[in-house]
C-alpha cells in the first residue's frame, strides 16, 4: 500500500484507560464515538488502508471502528499488524474471541515476527508508522510506554497525527 492512503493507530490497553475494561463507562462510549469520527476524518483526508496493532483495549476499538466504516465504504481495507504469532495466547477468552472476530474480517494480516522477543511490540509499531502518512492515537498524555514511543516516532517521520484524549 502507498503511504499516502494509509492510516496507522496506537493506543492504550485497558490498564492505562481510566475505565479499565468497563466499556459501558460513559467515558469509554465517548472515546469510541470520537475514535469513529477520527477514522471518518482520515477517510475524508484520503486514507483507505488502516493498520491496527491488534492489542487489547484501544486497538480493538479502532479495528471495530474501521470495520464499521468499511460497511459503508467498501474501498476501505484493514490490516492487522501482529507483533508476534502468540500475541493473544494468554488473553481472557472473551478478548481472544473479539480479536478473532476482527481478524476474520481483516483484508490483510502481517505477523511481524514468529515468536515473542523484547522489542517486538516496538517493531510492530515502527512497521505501521513506516507505512502510513497519518496516525490516530488514543493517548493519556504521559511521556512513557509504547503509545508515547509510537507518537514520538510518528512525529519524527512527519506523519499527520490525531490524538484522541482518554478523559
Structural commentary:
The protein has 167 residues and is α/β, with parallel strands linked by helices. The chain has a single domain (3-140, 154-165), classed as Rossmann fold, CATH 3.40.50.450. It has five helices and six strands; from the N terminus they run E-H-E-H-E-H-E-H-E-H-E. It has helices at 26-44, 58-72, 93-103, 120-130, 145-157, and strands spanning 6-11, 49-52, 77-82, 108-111, 134-139, 160-165. It has a six-stranded parallel sheet, sandwiched between helices. Helix 1 packs across helix 2 and helix 4 (120-130) runs parallel beside helix 5 (145-157). It is globular, with a radius of gyration of 14 Å. 38% of the residues are buried. The mean pLDDT is 96.
Keywords:
six-stranded parallel beta sheet; 5 helices; 167 residues; alpha/beta; single chain; Rossmann fold
Amino acid at each position: 500500500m502507498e503511504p499516502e492512503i494509509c492510516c496507522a493507530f496506537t493506543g492504550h490497553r485497558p490498564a492505562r484507560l481510566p475505565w479499565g475494561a468497563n466499556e459501558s463507562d460513559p467515558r469509554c462510549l465517548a472515546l469510541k464515538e470520537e475514535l469513529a469520527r477520527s477514522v471518518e476524518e482520515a477517510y475524508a483526508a484520503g486514507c483507505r488502508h488502516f493498520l491496527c496493532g491488534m492489542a487489547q483495549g484501544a486497538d480493538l476499538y479502532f479495528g471495530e471502528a474501521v470495520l464499521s466504516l468499511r460497511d459503508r465504504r467498501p474501498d476501505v481495507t484493514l490490516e492487522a499488524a501482529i507483533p508476534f504469532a502468540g500475541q493473544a495466547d494468554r488473553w481472557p477468552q472473551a478478548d481472544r474471541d473479539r480479536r478473532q472476530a476482527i481478524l476474520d474480517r481483516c483484508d490483510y494480516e502481517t505477523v511481524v515476527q514468529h515468536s515473542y522477543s523484547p522489542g517486538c511490540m516496538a517493531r510492530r509499531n515502527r512497521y505501521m508508522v513506516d507505512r502510513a502518512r497519518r496516525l490516530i492515537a488514543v493517548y493519556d498524555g504521559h511521556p512513557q510506554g509504547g503509545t508515547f514511543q509510537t507518537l514520538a516516532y510518528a512525529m519524527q517521520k512527519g506523519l499527520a497525527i490525531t490524538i484522541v484524549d482518554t478523559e
